[in-house]
Amino acid sequence: MLEEKHNIKAWLYLAPAMILLAVFTFYPIFNAFFLVFLKDFNFLAGTFEGFTLTENFVYILNKPDFKKALLNTLMIVFVSVPVSVILALLISAWLNSIKKLQGFFQTIFFLPYVTNAIAIGMAFAFLFHRNYGLINTMLNWIGIPSVNWVGLGAGYWSSMFALLVFIIWSGLAFKIMVFLSGLQSIDKQYYDAAKVDSTPRSRIFTKITVPLLSPMIAYITITSIIGAFKEYTAVIGMFGVRLGPAGNDGALVTIVALVYEAISRSGSTGAYSEAAAASIILFAITLVFTLINMQISKKRVHF
Amino acid sequence: MKRIFVLMLSLTLVLALSGCIFGGGREETTVTIPDALPEEEIEITLWHAFGDANQELLQEMFDEFNEMYPNVTINQVTQGGYDELRSATINAITAGTTPTLVMGYPDHFVEYLNGNALVPLDEYIEHEEFGIDLDDFVPGFLAENQQYLDGNMYSMPFAKSTEMVVYNKTVFDHHGIDIPDDEALTWADLIGFADTVQGSGDMQCEFLFNADSAANFFINSSRQWDAGYTTTEGDVLIDNETTREMLNYYKDLMDQDILAFPIEWDQDYGSTNFLQGDVCMTQGSTAGTRYNVPVEGQEGKFGQFEIGITPIIQLEGGTESAIQQGPNVAMISDATEAERLAAWLLIKHMTNTENTAFFAMNTGYVPVRLSAFNDPDYQAFLNTDDADRLPFSMAANVAYAQVDYYQYDPAFVGRITSSTVRQEAGFMFERIYSETQSVEESLQQMLEQLGQ
Amino acid sequence: MKPILSKKEQAARRQKIIRLVIVYTLLTFVALFIVIPFYWMILTSLKTAQQVDRVPPILFLKPGDWQFRNFALALQAAPYVRFMMNTVIVAAISTVGTIITTVLAAFAFARINFKGRDFIFMLLISSMMIPGEMFVITNFMTVNTLGWIRDQSFIDALAAMSFPFMTSIFYLFFLRQTFKQVPDELYLAAKVDGTTDFKYLLKVMIPIAKPTIITIIILNAMGTWNAYIWPNLVSPQNEDYRLVSNGLRNAYRDLAGQVAYNEQMAAALIVTIPLLIVFLLLKKQIMRGVSRSGIKG
What was the pLDDT predicted at C254? Predict the structure, then answer.
């Protein structure tokens, strides 16, 4: 009976969302796709000089920054997503296991979500200050000399590290919220049964909690990967338009930064097509990784 | 299912092709000027990026205008910052929801021109009755507004600023060095007193000179050295021997701690460290005067020291050049004849001698008319004894001292824009300063970034 | 008289205490990691302009030195109260819209079998992979075509700011996951009772998914609070219609572009605190777990 197809009913339920999405999401995407095939698109005058299949793509791929942007974006995805997902899982599990102060901690962990990225970016840049930052102060306590994280002439790896810490920090709040609401929804029955068997906590976690939470883990992983591919505001928040430490401008450029750069020239002929090309290239890369991720999820997600 | 999808797809394509994203194309603007301002109600709007304080000043000018032309209603809307102003205007041009007047930089205006969205002002300027005497305007400011490729003048200067050098008078007096306030020093002069003033002694500064904006420093120095920078057609001219010579010259000064940038202290501006005595001279915008004034109980090596202000440093034997900044005002072509005339009369009013002096005195901007400098109120301001106003009047005096040689950097759009080049120039200087790259490598990277 | 615990129970209790201590310690470390940048923000907001610039930086301020005037100045610099009201209204509209559209659509994806379901869902996910900037200009033109930009009234401004955000694939995905976790048996049981799908949705699914729905409400409302680019863009003619983050960003830039950091941080905090209050009020709803009645054993 569940296999019956109920197309009309489905569309009735989907209609409100789909109408809004068609107007404000799909239509803009088609426009963007369309732009990439235009030659000399003048946004202000609404004119263009013919069509081109690859010109705009070639331009973006040949940009001196493109390779760097690709590498940086991939690094952000492959480091920040696993680290923040695992951290969030652990933290929400700990949170779920205590009674007193649970609300207090939950409020604290939610703080990053309610603040302004630029203000916090500045605070973080200060934390990593080469002379007065807390990080270096703590390193000095244990005998490690100060590192120039984000200051004048700072290197790529140190500034990338600082950026990753900032990104992970910013992303925890949402993930913890989602995992916590997921944990709270797990039927106590499952835990009761395990308790009867005197199952150790770690086994309860890996064999019961995680599988029951797997839909949420899948959701968070997929959306985090997509979000990480689009990262840009964190770099701006921490480094400003220089996109890197002084003397190393553009060290942390990401693919979306290239999109923004093109849009900042939107009055120039061809600029919007460049932005569209960069967006589509990003889309293709993200799609590949997301499909891989979803395949993996299919095997491991239990509903 | 697939049918619905294909249907949606073709629908969107049709919509897209039918011009929903494509803005209203505009024809070349024709200008017809009525003989007199129509009597009907006219409403004009001005978009800018000013904060509350300046908005009030503008409102005073508007109220005065209304006494002369009661049938004109003026709306002013701030877009917050120049980036927001630019993107709001660009979108408005495409959507057809434009204001009458918009402030901005030539960088923005050439973008708007790409869509034929600006009104050439020449006929208004030369009009028998409503015209304006361009000779009274500061030539350097005018030149910036006359650079457009087709020879028309699309904007008028309104709120200009420039750069100046604030120095630690206490230190310089101690060493018996007298710095003029109406004539520019040269780099030779600075090198000359570097030994005395720069160092680790009690009455010395670790660094001699800070330039707030590495980008401005590069651009202005290129002019002083005749090294070539850019053209209005979008050519980048920096790949030559003179540029290299210039870069190496300043690298040398950096090595001797004579020249520094705020990144030395991980700052955006040099004012903090100037006040703390780390650097004895700082070159920055006249609009930032108050940040360079030591306060009572000032913490730092010299406490609350005395300051002086001198014009920006020139190159001995080079071309005199000072940078100009600050927004101009342009008119959008969507306006009707009546609205355009009203807007033009407003521009005339805002830039008349009295008002440009008034605006300048209260903001730290520079008057755009030569006669304004002789306006009695402005003169009183320039010669003030009031200790609180003194730094601002010193800055104004210095701005006037440079009035003969204000330059502008050409504005252009395209795969790279004038703002792209400016930004890359700043970054290049930073790389040289931080020694992450050699002079040659830094120059090469800049050229590569600009697709040269 | 206190009951005497057996050795086993004693050992178990000791274990429990050790575990609790470890967990609380770990949580405290995490909390510190989270809180430190905030401490810096709050500290900066209480400093004078000179203290902000001080090097080496001041890490602690005596209560007597706290500059509350920064907050007073921040409140004066922009009409925050009006901006906050605008933001609350826009947040309310877009959140209500989001909940309605998302609940209905998530139900369809989770429970109704229809042709192309997986394909369309994949399409929706894919649309999240395009950077937001590419949507902005088309949506601006659309909103203009709908007549909400020219001669904009307050209602027009509200519509322009909220309509594009009345549905969210991000939250749709989230809710679908939650709905899919509701066991089939419950549905079958309801069907046997003759319940329609809609009633099932209303009476069973939504209550079970309440923590998720509350979470979505909170997150969506917060998102509106921080929105900057879009609200600024669609109310270019009238500053009064703008939202709270506009006041924050623009209030402290001056001619030279230099920012009074202490005042800016104070402004940021003023904006943050209402959010925290809302969060505090609503979080109990999430924390209250839901026990699924119905299917036992």
Answer: 57
Report the residue of B1, B233, B436 to disrupt the A interface, i.e. the one with the largest count of A CBs within 10 Å.
B436
Q: A5-10 contacts: CB < 8 A, separation 24 or more?
A: A5/C113, A5/C114, A5/C115, A6/C112, A6/C113, A6/C114, A7/B1, A7/C114, A7/C115, A9/C112, A9/C114, A9/C197, A10/C108, A10/C112, A10/C113, A10/C114, A10/C117
Give, as one character, the DSSP assignment of residue B36: S
Average pLDDT over residues A203-208: 83
In angstroms, the CA B246 to CA B235 distance is: 20
Kindly tell me if the per-residue pLDDT of C294 is higher than 50.
no
Residue B417: CA atoms inside 13 Å, Cβ hemisphere, count? 22
Shared domain check, C156 and C221: yes
Rounded Cα distance between A239 and A233, Å, is 10
User: Residue C293: pLDDT band by 50, 70, 90 thresholds?
Assistant: very low
Tell me the chain A residues in contact with residue B90 when contact means C-beta distances shorter than 8 Å: 43-44, 266-267
CATH number, domain at A113? 1.10.3720.10
Structure tokens at C248: 């924050």
Q: What percent of chain A has pLDDT over 90?
A: 62
How many angstroms away from the CA of B54 is the closest CA of chain A?
Answer: 25
Phi and psi angles of residue B313, each rounded to the nearest 5 degrees, phi first: -70, 135
Where in the sequence is the domain holding A291, given as residue range(s)? 64-300
Q: Which of C142, C150, C258 sits opposite B288 (nearest CB)?
A: C258
| Closest residue on chain A to C280 (Cα) | A107
CB C90 within 8 A of CB C231: yes
Inter-chain CB proximity A30 and B9 less than 8 Å:
yes
Contact list in A for residue C132 (CB cut-off 8 A) is 230
- CA–CA distance, B68 with B45 (Å, rounded to integer): 18
**Alpha helix (H) residue ranges in B127-258:** 139-145, 169-174, 187-197, 214-224, 241-255
Is B114–A42 a contact, with Cβ atoms under 8 angstroms apart? yes
- The angle at the Cα of B402, spanning B228 to B365, to the nearest 5 degrees, equals 105
pLDDT tens by residue, B120-131:
999 999 998 899
Q: Which of C127, C237, C255 to probe by mutation at the B interface, max B CB count within 10 Å?
A: C255
Residues C94 and C229 in one domain: yes
Q: Which domains does chain B have, with CATH numbers?
A: 31-160+326-382 (3.40.190.10), 161-324+393-449 (3.40.190.10)
Residue at C179 is within a domain? yes
The answer, yes or no, to whether residue B18 has pLDDT greater than 70, is: no
The residue ranking higher by pLDDT, C1 or C23, is C23
- Residue B27: exposed, middle, or buried by beta-carbon count in 10 A (0-12, 13-18, 19+)? exposed
**Which residues in chain B have Cβ-Cβ distances shorter than 8 Å to C55?**
265, 272, 276
Position C257 scores a pLDDT of 60
pLDDT in tens, B278-310: 999 999 999 889 889 998 888 889 999 999 999
C-alpha span between A37 and A274 (Å, rounded): 10
Residues from chain A that touch B12, judged by Cβ atoms under 8 A, are 26-27, 30-31
**A7 inside 8 A of chain B by CB:** yes
Partner-chain contact A46 B94, CB within 8 Å: yes
Using alpha carbons, select from C184, C214, C215 the residue that is nearest to residue C200. Answer: C184
Q: How many beta-carbon contacts under 8 Å exist across A and C?
A: 256
Q: Quote the CA–CA distance of C31 and A91 in Å, as a whole number.
A: 10
DSSP label at residue B74? E
Contact of C36 with A115, CB cutoff 8 Å: no
Predicted confidence band of residue B13 (pLDDT cuts 50, 70, 90): low
